Fold ABC transporter substrate-binding protein.
Amino acid sequence: MRHSLRIAVLAASALLGAGGPAHAYPTKPVTIVVPFPAGSQTDMVARIAGAELERRLGKPFVVENKPGASGSIAAKYVADSAPDGSTLLLTTAAIQAMNKSLFKQPSYDPVKDFTPVAQIATTSMMLMTRPDFPANNVEELVALARKDGNAMSAGYGSSGAQIALALFQARAGTDVLAVPYKGIPNAVTDVIGKTITFTFVDVGNALRFQQGKQLKPLAIASAQRSRLAPSVPSLSESLKDYNITSWYGLVGPKAMPDGVAQALAQALQASLADAATVEKLAVAGVEPAYMPPAPFGKHIENEVDNWARLVQLARIEPQ
């Protein structure tokens, strides 16, 4: 393990060295732009990645939060930046795939306007309800919803959660009241306060709510169980073809030098093989899932189509 890490780090360093492909890499600090507020799961992943890149590449990496417009403000900012590697975007499935279908006139093209660097990690959401709610698994929740769906309600605090709820309703054949919120924390507050019945929560926060016994998880929205919560069943175990999996990755402006992207990718690959980094990501509620530039770029293209189908299923009208 140590030998392979050493090779990966030396390779990344060589790419940034004088005369290497990334010779034009700027000496000024590199900014990782985050499309969501400080303290969000995306922000946590960005800070972990930034610290690792700084440590391994010997250049300052700073995180800058530019929230707003479902991430479009940050994405557009990076797309319009100089393609020298000094400005990067910590992106997500929502930013790089979902927004294409959520907006009638997106301010950026998720494929054409960016240079893929690497996928970093994957994550999902948990379907959670209050501890004293009579359903203790998905089957019991579905049975109650089918019996008296009008008496139940579900909140969503993000586009991803909205789609997760819509897919749940479609697969379960239920019609509970869907309630929009400005953010997931707002929906959680109302589940705890018994205003709504259940909601979908990102894994990192879900684990904390579970440990604090404020909410109980009924299932995770991904196709398989998470290594972070192996006792929590996946929704696919109860509902056929259910899968809402998100991911985090790093991209730069289009036409960014290949050497820069490769150097960043190799440093990230080395970091994700480090047990300490994996543990930090686990605390943030995500699992390492490295993907190099070319496959990551293809994955983004496929995800644009995948989320378009899910948005259509959710009957979400583009804004």
Observations:
- The longest helix spans residues 293-313.
- The CA atoms of residues 16 and 22 lie 5 Å apart.
- Residues 1-24 have pLDDT under 50 and may be disordered.
- The chain is about 45% helix and 20% strand.
